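User: I'm preparing a small set of examples for a lab meeting where we compare how different chains pack in three dimensions. I only have the primary sequence for this one, and I'd like the structure in token form so I can line it up with the others. Please keep the answer compact; I'll paste it straight into my notes.
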Amino acid sequence: MALNFPDSPTLNQVYTDTTSGFSYQWDGVVWQSYTPSATKNILVLDDISGSFNSSTTIFNLTNSGTAVTPANSQQLRVTLGGIVQEPGTDYLVASSTIIFTTAPDFGIDCSIVSLGPAVPVNTIIDGTVTPVKLSTGGPSWNTDGDFYISGITTIADVVKVGVGTTALIVEGNARVTGILTVGSSSITLDGDNNTITVGSGVTISASTGLTGSGANLTSLNASNVSSGTLAIARGGTNSTATPTSGGAAYGTGTAFAFTSAGTSGQVLTSNGTSAPTWQDAGGGAWNFIGSITANDSTSVSFTSGIDSTYDTYVVVGTGITASYNEGNFLGSRYSTDSGSSYISTDYNSANYFLYNFTYEGDTFPATSNLISFGIGATTIYTNSNTCFTNWYFNLNSSTKAKICNSDSISVAGIGGTYILREEYYTGLTTSSVVNAIEFFMNTGNISSGTFNLYGISNS
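Assistant: Understood. Below is the structure token output for the 459-residue chain.
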């Protein structure tokens, strides 16, 4: 007769052979014949009273120096000073230790007897119970995990099947006699009247279709609507039009439609009750070209963006400051080779200026090496800053003089002691096309400030 012992047994595990009725216990090495009532399973544990000191409560449990692990407190018979201790009240066991509720006094005697080892319940071998060992009329199953119940099964109370999102799977047909309720009366399926009711908001009926309050249809996925149109009053377009990339939506009176994309720089123009159209922008618009911020800069130069695109260019300076002395000023010059060099002769200019709103004088036309304007303060006004607007005309003309009209205001900081208003008019006669402009101080650097370049549309 072959015995089919379990694989990987635990210490003291008991195995019972169902054919012979004999039991065996694993001692960590081999299976030994086992009888629960055998006296060899009753152990007198090693005396621990020598470790009592009236303060320690935890002691190791051993038999001949080998650790003993009781299954529970009731497996031990413990006496202290001849008095039997109450398991679970006077002491507890944890693994191979005993824990006294009150520390035993020094010198008191102690006796501990183990009434038997921990016996794991494992008397039935896996896979040994078959349907024929159950009573007649019971369920049956096979090795594939299929479970069968023949006849009518009556269950008088609540039945719970599994856990999680796939607790119950029904393959094949299923029939419910009566009304099926899902959840806490939130969904009901009534086969007799062919209706499905979802709470109090929606009802699906074979006779009336889908009915319910629109307020409850808050998660309707419009991507599932594959045909037809949705009315404007319902948030739709009342059309099948597809939006054009870069186009604009407009109303036809009955539906939404979309224009073409137009081209860069165009604006949408109304045509009354007809569809709007894209048109080129009207003249006179300022077109931003670029910006430069000075930071203790020797000069600030615009070497690109000045070409035949515009007839007129404007540079706006804001918060221009410098470390300067008496007679220092801001100026600009032209270049005809994209900033490789700058013209330093034959600028004809005149100016008009006010100091603290008082007329201070003007100069008649004179020839200079630059276009001068702004700043013009003494050394005591170190917080002075200048703002200016320079208009440049005919820069891309080969037959007209290049003209600059400069208007600047310089103020000596917050609560400053002077305000200087200047207007400069400068002309340069050259047939070459100007394509770069430089700004600089006649002495020192530009400490800070922003220079913005604009082009004025030709038409």
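A couple of notes for your slides: The two ends are 112 Å apart (CA to CA). The CA atoms of residues 259 and 449 lie 44 Å apart.

User: Perfect, thanks.
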